[in-house]
Amino acid sequence: MKKVFQRPRYLKKAVFHYCPGCGHSIIHRLIAEVIEELNIGEKTIGVPPAGCAVLAYDYLDVDMGEAPHGRGAAVATGLKRVLPDHIIFSYQGDGDIAAIGTAETIHAANRGENISVFFINNACYGMTGGQMAPTTLLGQESTTTPGGRRKDRDAAPIDLSEMLAIARGSVYIERTTVNSPKSIRKTKKAITKSFKIQMAGLGFSLIEILSPCPVNWKMAPVEAARWIDDEMIKTFPLKVIKDTAGKID
Amino acid sequence: MAGKKGMITIDSELCKGCYLCIAACPYGLIEIFDELNQFGYYPAHFTGGNDKNRECTGCATCALVCPDVAIEVYRE
Ligand SMILES: Cc1ncc(C[n+]2csc(CCOP(=O)(O)OP(=O)(O)O)c2C)c(N)n1
Ligand code: SF4
Ligand code: SF4
Ligand code: SF4
Ligand SMILES: [Mg+2]
């Protein structure tokens, strides 16, 4: 028999520190698979965040440059401008990109920086123990919203991707998830498209990926995967939010 | 035990016993093993199926959903 599925070349043989069923692990693998398929491993530089994915450089076997909390798009901008022939991506949680890093992200999108941004939305601050993030759903329990997030007290969730679609420099923005075989395939396609847009020099692209955090959601992994379909996509519908790149090969 | 069309291997030291592959396999060919791995998880285990209506096809659905890249898939 032939081996038809194995660890991708750009994912180190290391045990992930992530909790069982964590979406970060799946997304790391997809990024590594796409880097291998596009044959860009020797010229890709990733920018990991503060957050659970802070150690992404221990897993992805490409050059990596850590950003301070929220500053992924700014660090990626610098890298891309100095090394324009390289493929630069930032990898950022929802707290990272939609709270502390909002300003950097909006301006990078508006400037149309030719970078790829992967925005991992798990509706909480995962690493620090499950506090409310700007993306926490109304009614969702978190350590800082006991009894559930309330609009009158805590504001409604932020639609960062829709906001970034307004920015003049953004080219492609899609929201996907990784809670099923089908959605995992779709996310991989979106990651591929984002890198291809960058390789074609077209400008800023971002993939928002709804990602299970079973531990802070206090659910078993299978239940967390279901919760994305049952609850999370009502607030964050899966769709192409902006695409001015069109078909790209 | 391999099926005729396909088989998988699960690295029990990478597996965290999350059940996602078990929920994904269309033929119910994966179970949780009752011995802990060194990290303290009960890892998943490929049963290979025990009748010809439940044989592994090497479809790789289990590997696609595995967060910990613990599964390798072989196909005829
Ligand atoms: C300047 C700064 N402020 C606060 C922190 C503490 N901190 C670390 S991770 C984190 C939140 C991470 O949440 P998110 O970006 O959603 O990532 P996740 O862990 O959920 O993937 C915070 C507030 C920090 N590291 N640096
Ligand atoms: S706390 Fe949540 S996001 Fe962080 S590793 Fe665990 S499951 Fe993943
Ligand atoms: S390859 Fe397909 S049939 Fe075989 S164990 Fe995995 S999901 Fe089941
Ligand atoms: S999906 Fe992977 S980590 Fe989860 S139980 Fe199956 S083999 Fe183990
Ligand atoms: Mg988060």
What would you say this structure looks like, in words?
The complex is a heterodimer of chains A (249) and B (76). Chain A is 37% helix and 17% strand. Chain A is an alpha/beta fold and 249 residues long. Chain A has one domain (24-243): Rossmann fold, CATH 3.40.50. In chain A, strand 6 (170-177), helix 7 and strand 7 form a beta-alpha-beta unit. The mean pLDDT of chain A is 98. Chain B has helices spanning 20-24, 61-65, and strands at 6-10, 30-32, 44-46, 71-75. In chain B, 45% of the residues are buried. Chain B has two helices and four strands; from the N terminus they run E-H-E-E-H-E. In chain B, the strands form two sheets. Chain B has a two-stranded antiparallel sheet with strand order 1-4. Chain B has a two-stranded antiparallel ribbon with strand order 2-3. Chain A binds chain B through residues 1-7, 11, 15-16, 18-23, 25-26, 29, 180-181, 184-185, 214, 220-222, 225, and chain B through 2, 6-7, 13-14, 16-20, 23-24, 39, 41, 58, 60-61, 63-65, 67-69, 71-76. Strand 1 (2-5) of chain A pairs antiparallel with strand 4 (71-75) of chain B. Bound molecules: thiamine diphosphate, iron/sulfur cluster (3 copies) and magnesium ion (MG). One iron/sulfur cluster is lined by residues 10, 15-21, 43-44, 66-68, 70-71 of chain B.
